[in-house]
TrEMBL record:
SUPFAM superfamilies xrefs: Radical SAM enzymes
Protein purpose: Catalyzes the methylthiolation of an aspartic acid residue of ribosomal protein uS12.
Name of the featured protein: Ribosomal protein uS12 methylthiotransferase RimO
Pfam families given in the database record: Radical_SAM (PF04055), TRAM_2 (PF18693), UPF0004 (PF00919)
Catalytic reaction equation(s): L-aspartate(89)-[ribosomal protein uS12]-hydrogen + (sulfur carrier)-SH + AH2 + 2 S-adenosyl-L-methionine = 3-methylsulfanyl-L-aspartate(89)-[ribosomal protein uS12]-hydrogen + (sulfur carrier)-H + 5'-deoxyadenosine + L-methionine + A + S-adenosyl-L-homocysteine + 2 H(+)
Keyword Coiled coil: no
Binding site for [4Fe-4S] cluster 2: C168, C172, C175
Annotated TRAM domain residues: 390-458
Family: Belongs to the methylthiotransferase family. RimO subfamily.
Gene that specifies this protein: rimO
Length: 462
């Protein structure tokens, strides 16, 4: 049985899944979606618009009249991956349109791949459509080309990402996302709620709320109220929780008002899960990052959250080897992690990114030291995870089924697990009659470093 392993880049979205059968003679477009879940949502929006115009969606290069590559520019390694994907699409198909974060610098792409048909930046949907129209004219059949009410989704039918805002107002020195995606731009709350309602009506059992800074939702529009819905994360979470699906919050900065979300979790309205990008714990490192430097108060806040909601799962990502990080600062991070006892942890090794202010900082950490610190950090995080999961043996966990293979083994996730970045719960017998998307009770029999194994308990929650 395979188990989850920590990745160097814990920001990646699940693999895009395309399930579409183009009609005879229908113009078709392929999609390669790289990077984070926010980029995956952009890909879904592009394909939804194209599908509404009569285009088919191809799952492979050979069946596509042109291919869109939605790129990532978060790290230099991600840029290299994007350039490689563009090159592969050119080799396999030849007609390639590039969009996404890397498209914010068109010359960077055309300097390597001059044969691409067009380059557009992130969430420039109209420009992408114009490029597709120029490359592959639409040929809709109004009697056949019907678009599902929920649009085109690249995730399994039972869960979906729900993007509530674009951009970010933070000025972290290591990040160029605000330069590529702009300042915070929140969607109206009633528009978010309407999209969520349509998703739940179409069979979605879990809504994964994403943005660049979920806690700041609505700040840019002064928490405007429209159609009886206020653009504030607490109000939005409460409204989403009333829809009856699991609601999971990602990218939540630990502002003071986050404590208002925790009672909603304790009451079962939204999942007891917070994904908070702490990035580091030593105040000097945080200051060099241009991030809030109150690690001690953060520990107090975590304790307060857990006092309200003991079942709370905390997930975070960290950067090791940031310029100027001393061994003492890194040891302080390990000590902080010991105290915080986070449930789910991902870690990046610091990389320079063209345009980031951190590039100019002194005392860059050698690659071998970064690797050593990453290894030590992940060993600490793994030991904490193993202990926490061992404590779940003998408990009954509510879980959602993501997959059932040909041998009847069900891959599930508990309320503490986000898709493809956290652990799994495996059930290897008694799954007859169950379906993907079912929510079941599982008695945990065994625990590993990142995953659980168990047997079905009471099926009344299906």
């Amino acid at each position: 049985m395979s188990t989850n392993l920590p990745e160097l880049r814990p920001d990646l979205a699940p693999r895009a899944r395309i399930a579409d059968t183009p009609r005879q003679g229908q113009p078709t477009i392929g999609m390669v979606s790289l990077g984070c879940p926010k980029a995956l949502v952009d890909s879904e929006r592009i394909l939804t618009r194209l599908r509404a115009e009569g285009y088919g969606i191809s799952a492979d290069y050979a069946g596509a009249d042109a291919v869109i590559v939605n790129t990532c520019g978060f790290l230099d390694s991600a840029k290299a991956e994007s350039l490689e994907a563009i090159g592969e699409a050119l080799t396999e198909n030849g007609r390639v349109i590039v969009t996404g974060c890397l498209g914010a610098d068109p010359q960077y792409i055309t300097g390597v791949h001059p044969r691409v048909l067009a380059v557009t930046g992130p969430h420039q949907y109209e420009q992408v459509l114009d490029a597709v129209h120029a490359a592959v004219p639409p040929s809709p059949d109004p009697f056949i080309d019907l678009l599902p009410a929920s649009g085109v989704r690249l995730t399994p039918r039972h869960y979906s990402y729900l993007k509530i805002s674009e951009g970010c107002n933070h000025k972290c020195k290591f990040c160029i996302i605000p330069d590529m995606r702009g300042r915070l731009a929140s969607r109206p709350a009633h528009a978010v709620l309407r999209e969520a309602e349509k998703l739940v009506e179409s069979g979605v059992r879990e809504l994964l709320v994403i943005s660049q800074d979920t806690s700041a939702y609505g700040v840019d529009i002064r928490h405007a109220e429209a159609n009886s819905h206020r653009a504030h994360i607490t109000d939005l979470a409460r409204d989403l929780g009333a829809l009856g699906a699991w609601v999971r919050l990602h990218y939540v900065y630990p502002y003071p008002h986050v404590r208002d979300l925790v009672p909603l979790m304790a009451d079962g309205l939204i999942l007891p899960y917070l994904d908070i990008p702490f990035q580091h714990a030593h105040p000097d490192t945080l200051r060099r990052m241009a991030r809030p430097a109150a690690a001690a108060r953060t520990l107090d806040e975590i304790a307060a959250w857990r006092a309200i909601c003991p079942d709370l799962t905390l997930r975070s990502t960290f950067i090791v080897g940031y310029p100027g990080e001393t061994e003492a600062e890194f040891e302080a991070l390990l000590d902080w992690l010991d105290e915080a006892q986070l449930d789910r942890v991902g870690c990046f090794q610091y990389e320079n990114v063209a345009g980031a202010r951190s590039n100019a900082l002194p005392d860059h950490v050698p690659a071998e030291v970064k690797q050593d610190r990453w290894d030590r950090f992940m060993a600490k995080a793994q030991a904490i995870s193993e202990d926490k999961l061992a404590a779940k043996v003998g408990t009954v966990q509510k879980a959602i089924i993501d997959e059932i293979d040909a041998n009847g083994i069900a891959t599930c996730r508990t309320r503490a697990d986000a898709p493809e970045i956290d652990g799994n719960l495996f059930v290897d017998e008694g799954t007859e009659g169950l379906s993907v998307g079912d929510i079941v009770h599982v008695v945990v029999d065994e625990a590993g470093e990142y995953d659980l194994w168990g047997r079905l308990g009471d099926r009344s929650s299906r």
